[in-house]
């Protein structure tokens, strides 16, 4: 990655939200730079005068959210080239870390649009798509569902209809990730200075799509396994890729490793927004603490009985809400414990 110049910061996604933070505090000896990749504890940054790999080991006095992630804006000391601080994020995509350890895993910061990539085959899963939508809505990032591998289905349009039915106004695009003309329709989401992150299972074609939009094959890809159609992890580094789009340049694409598990935590508002039809009915329940099981005057039960609410969708809503409550409670307990090796800030 080469250093940028001139309008480089704006091209990298620098906006008033970030410049106001710099002008409001000390920083005359610092310069802003954006994290374009994270790999094994080191971050690569780009900015006016920067094209460096630096250590991410600033004095951390908290958890994972106090460490830089791809898409972050940093203030770098001009002389020592060390990290001074991470600027407040306009958006942050995160999830509980997979496994038993309920740490937070950061996906990307300062993202404008989230491409939720799925394929027109056995990978298409309504429940999983709703989880990604909750992730996007909680972070206040615009979600767009990208459907790939239309050639694997005799009726790819049915997948588009099913995706758009998840939420009013939800955008869904059917593309051939290998065809530049087809993929070019997505360029409008990634204009000058815009950042788009791609999430989805391994093997759905995220890296292929990024390669096509970039006009190069710099990211390795692998075929899915025969038999179960599951993909193999190709992307192992979260990295920003420049989308070339004419003389002014396009925006940035963030390719992320495939996710086999997407737990929910601290996403109550996202769940409410994605399942607005269900939560609106729940407000009419007789009791504020209704469990929507067998209480008298349960509006949810009444709506399912009359057919205005889909019982399967209600079931998915309850599962996500309960999972979020449990994980959020565990996270609150974890945050209340004293940090190891130093004081909290």
UniProtKB/TrEMBL annotation:
Broad class of the protein's primary localization: cytoplasm
Binding annotation for Zn(2+): 285, 290, 292, 298
Cofactor notes: Binds 1 zinc ion per subunit.
Any one GO cellular component localisation term in the record: cytoplasm
Listed EC numbers: 3.6.1.-
Cofactor(s) essential for the protein: Zn(2+)
Protein localization: Cytoplasm
Name listed for the protein in its UniProt record: Small ribosomal subunit biogenesis GTPase RsgA
Gene that encodes it: rsgA
